Amino acid sequence: MQKIIVLTLLAFAGISCTTSQKLSNKKPYARLLDTSQVFAQNFTGMAIYDVDQKKTLFERNADRYFTPASNTKLFTYYACIKTLGDSIPALRYVIKDDSLIFWGTGDPTLFHHDLKNTSAFDFLKSYKRSKLFFFADGNFTNTAMGEGWAWDDFNDYYSAEISPMPMYGNIVRVSIDKGEFSPQPGIFENSFYKKDEGTTITRVQTDNLFLLPKSMLTKNNYKQDIPYKTSIGLTQQLLIDTLRRNVNLLHIPVSKDAKTIYSMASEDVYRLMMQESDNMLAEHLLLLCGANLKDSLNSSFVIKSITEKYLQDLPDAPKWVDGSGLSRYNLFTPRSIVKLLEKLRADVPQQKLYSILPVGGQSGTLKNGYKNTDKPFIFAKTGSLSGVYNLSGYLITKKGKTLIVSFMNNNFNQSTTKVRKEVEKILTWIYENQ
């Protein structure tokens, strides 16, 4: 009996030593998290993977699900890499007798305020006026707003609606300078009504009526982006207004013999989506994937297709519901995001990948942070909602190691700025010491 007890104790001691040894290797990362007062009451998850050693260095709640916010755009980008080519498909079309019938692809670049692409417009404008024009929307089966989006965000620029042929980014850009008031597109000029009170322009929730506080007319160099309410009828009006010709409507699926017109380089659109965390671009890029896969503009269809074909090897099955991360229904684990980033690194040349992502101290949502080092070391996507701040991407240490990091923080009741700065502090320590 004594012998059994002694052997048991020795075995336990051996296990304890092994466990302690493993823990000691992880102590620096664990200590950084455990001693942080900023993270004391929130839910934090972290996964660190060494690319060269192909080894997981640290995990904390890495198998737990988090609301990813705009980290979701990493999944959308991956879907695009697997589905789209070097150029964005602008529209699909057929010519039948004296008629030109065309379908949207979800291409978000047409007259986009920050991309200013006119390829689809130039193509349509080039056809003789004798042709009858028909815009068809039979390939669009999506909703105008994503599943799980907050309804009261409808007036905010980041909640632009989803449509088969978006124009102007599906927003009205209002400029006010020295008393001059100018909305773009101009078709909305008579849709603004002046009111006495208020400090910002608001849209009526159910219609394209905009309320403009009179006090704002004294502002200089002021700009505000407000989503307009999309509809097939409004798309028709915008096409008529820009093409200066009649455009009819059809509700038919894309013809099997339809041809494709392309707009601009895909990489330029990906870069703006990732660096500025543009939700409208993300949602419509996901639709574009559907247009390429099956002439189907439907986010759920694309997500299901990409997940089944390419993401079965993730450690934890993702709950992925939209392209942008606006939905709180999205749920990913840190270790699954690390795996996705590893897959992206295998598919995209390193320098191109790093140029598309926000760069610490240089570009996008990381431009104003990570400036206390001699060179950029973090190339990553951030994601934030109320009570949510995440960062996932690639960290190049001072010694030249490449680490993939997913650092997720949910359920905090303090300023996002505090959490963001604490994340920066810890990642900078890893850069300096690993």
TrEMBL record:
Coiled coil: none annotated. One of its GO terms (molecular function) is serine-type carboxypeptidase activity. InterPro entries: Beta-lactam/transpept-like (IPR012338), Peptidase_S13 (IPR000667). GO terms for biological process: peptidoglycan metabolic process; proteolysis. It comes from the Bacteria. The keyword Cell membrane does not apply. Keywords: Hydrolase. It holds the Pfam family Peptidase_S13. Belongs to the peptidase S13 family. This is D-alanyl-D-alanine carboxypeptidase/D-alanyl-D-alanine-endopeptidase. It comes from Emticicia agri.
